[in-house]
Amino acid sequence: MYNAKILSAAAVLAAGVFASTGAHAGMVTDAHGNVGYDNAAECDAAVQNGNAKFYQSFTTKPALRRAGETQVKVTRLADLGGNYRLGACDAGAAHQFGRDGVSKALQGKYVPYSPNMAVNVYANATGQPVRVSMKQCDNNFSGPIPRPVAIPQPVATSPVVIVPPAPVIAPVVAKTLSPYVFGTVGALRDKVGGALLHDRDTEVAGQLGAGLQFNKLVGAELFYQYAKRHDFTDGLAAADVRNKTFGGRVTLGGLVADKTRLFAKLGAASVKHTSTGYSDRKTRLTAGAGLAYSLTNNLALRADYDHYFKRGANWKAADYLGLGLQYNF
């Protein structure tokens, strides 16, 4: 009998230890002290039990309207409707549309937001609200509106019909296309290998271009490249040659850090060599790599490497390396 009582007490104690420790087994904390949970139920339970540490913004940024948004006003999260009276537990978002979401450690986790948190409410030309963001930093939620904390329902003694409150904001389709322009300055190494002339020369060059990012991974660019005249000589002959290049390429890559995007490039370019009494144009395959580091929401430092493959008997491969800026609209 005593052994049974001891085993029963031990089971109750073990259950209590599990309840006090296991409830936060799925919680993570970022470098700023903000927390996130593996699933919405854990986040809701922490808010309902009064144990949640609500998210605190650590940057300050002004409101930034997107296409179709003409008005913005500031209110509390709780003022969005009765279903927000406990706040929100929303999946952490990544950087998009010129604004951040949450730190990388919390992206995809469910983050608790206080009902007293100030938010920006964006509306269209008719005054219809279409999107909500965090007021202090203008950071994004996972969708047009954050997910509200589930409201605990009292145990009913008789069947009742519960009608969920209608959302105050209609979902909108998020814009995915992101245009940008860029310019870099660097060096072009060109090589000639014809019947009379075999040489290579490196001169100052630059690229200007425009691109369109279709989603987080895939984009496309058009570019123009211009270089100072290359001086070729090998003792048998000499030439002063201009290299002008125009091309298009597909980019493929993504974020490797919070502010750093690495991408590969593959495309084709029309490469024209001209000199006194001489002109040669060939379409060549081109491949390369690039890196963009965000300085602000719109401006990034950009580095490019491009390789132009050999085509024809006279002109061999060429390589461009440049550094400059990219502006994202």
TrEMBL record:
* Localization (cell): Cell outer membrane
Protein origin, superkingdom:
Bacteria
* Residue ranges of coiled coil: none
Signal sequence coordinates: 1-25
Gene3D superfamilies the UniProt entry points to: 2.40.160.20
An example Gene Ontology cellular component term from the record?
cell outer membrane
Could you tell me which residue ranges the Outer membrane protein beta-barrel domain spans? 178-329
Q: SUPFAM superfamilies annotated for this entry?
A: OMPA-like (SSF56925)
Could you tell me which InterPro entries the record lists for this protein? Answer: Beta-barrel_OMP, OMP/PagP_B-barrel
Where primarily located? membrane
Which keywords, in A-to-Z order, does the entry hold? Answer: Signal
User: What is the name attached to this protein's record?
Assistant: Outer membrane protein beta-barrel domain-containing protein
